[in-house]
Design a protein that fits this description.
The complex is a heterodimer of chains A (about 25) and B (about 100). Chain A has about 25 residues and is mainly β. Chain A is built from no helices and two strands. A two-stranded antiparallel sheet of chain A has the order 1-2. Chain A is elongated. The two termini of chain A are about 25 Å apart. Chain B is of the alpha+beta class and about 100 residues long. Chain B has two helices and three strands. In chain B, about 30% of the residues are buried. Classes of the chains: A mainly beta (about 25), B alpha+beta (about 100). At the A-B interface, strand 2 of A face strand 3 and helix 1 of B.
Chain lengths: ~25, ~100
């Protein structure tokens, strides 16, 4: 999947990517 | 950390030495949050477990629009719990090595 990047003004970088299916909780 | 509806995991192997470690946070149960989170997926970030404060990262996530202000304590708690676990594991490893 594609990842997007958000950089906060304090300098920290957040990389957002889809949660892998295997890591989602079972219903 | 499950009570918070958020999940925080390591995004890299912990070698027990690095202070700054990559972590990944995502919403497991949006119903447990007070505000609506941005439906974005897993948020990866690096965090210095010795110098940084989980509250600051939580605030930066809110500033960046991932969560609403009313959930700042929940986000901070989830990160704090994971950091405590990492520290506990490291201490335990050191004791075993000694």
């Amino acid at each position: 999947g594609s990842a997007t990047q958000v950089v906060h003004s304090a300098g920290r970088r957040f990389i957002v990517s889809p949660v892998p299916e295997s890591r989602l909780r079972e219903p | 950390a499950e009570e918070t509806g958020l999940r925080v995991e390591l995004a890299e192997e912990d070698d027990g030495k690095k202070n700054s470690i990559a972590m990944r946070l995502w919403v497991e149960d949006p119903k447990k949050l007070k505000g609506k989170p941005k439906d974005n997926g897993a948020i990866e970030f690096s965090f210095d477990i010795n110098k940084e404060n989980p509250d600051d990262v939580a605030q930066e996530m809110i500033d960046s629009g991932f969560f609403q202000e009313c959930d700042s304590k929940t986000v901070a708690k989830s990160i704090r719990d994971r950091v405590a676990l990492i520290k506990w594991r490291r201490e335990r490893c050191q004791q075993v090595n000694v």
